[in-house]
Amino acid sequence: MKTMVYIFDTKVLRDKKIFDEMYRKMPEYRRKKIDAYQTDAEKRLCLGTGVVFSHAIEAAGFSEDELKIAYSESGKPYFKNDLDFHFSLSHSQERAMCAVSDEPIGCDVEQISLDRDTDMWTRLESYAKATDEPLSMLMNQKSPFNSGWRFKEVDLQDGYKYMTCTQEELADDQIEVYTL
After folding, report:
1. Angle at 74 between CA 73 and CA 76, to 5 degrees
2. Which uninterrupted H or E stretch holds 36?
3. Spatial CB neighbours of 166, under 8 Å, sequence gap ≥ 6
């Protein structure tokens, strides 16, 4: 299994010229999502997520036009026409993250905080995304936390914790990390 992780620092999108340039490159559905947000910070995060998502799809040899996004009952996005290409998206504060794999995958990014257990939170969220289990069920422990899943942290030492969750252990040579 090969996993690719893409991380984008959205601070660069504070520059209106760069924001506008990247916005124009987004597909219409992503521009509508961006436009629906109220604050500039939310718009930057949504655009940043679109940037890493588009980059990941392109790097895998696809175009967004050919991959049809569908949503599970719980709202998890997936490609209905390519079941062997899995992805997960996350964003926090000024970071956007996308993980892609040929196996089910979940990812989460959180700004490191002394007020909460960031390690446990990123594991919980990435697990919920990988398994398509509602986060609320996991938090209320109504759904078991299956220890058969494996976690891999990407440490960029930038004040954020990046976590992936997969069914198989990821060796260092099985994960490639790209910062955009």
Report:
1. 100
2. helix 28-36
3. 1, 3, 101, 103, 104, 105, 130, 149, 150, 152
**Structure tokens of 52?**
């890493």
Residue by residue, DSSP assigns 153-173 as: EE--SSSEEEEEEESSPPPGG
- Report pLDDT digits (tens) over 82-94: 778 899 999 999 9
Residue 80 near residue 145, CB atoms below 8 Å: no
Distance between CA 160 and CA 146 in Å, rounded? 25
For 36, the token pair is: 């629906």
Those residues whose C-beta lies under 8 Å from the C-beta of residue 80, and which sit 6 or more positions away, are: 68, 69, 70
pLDDT digits (tens, 9 = 90+) for 6-28: 999 999 999 999 999 999 999 99
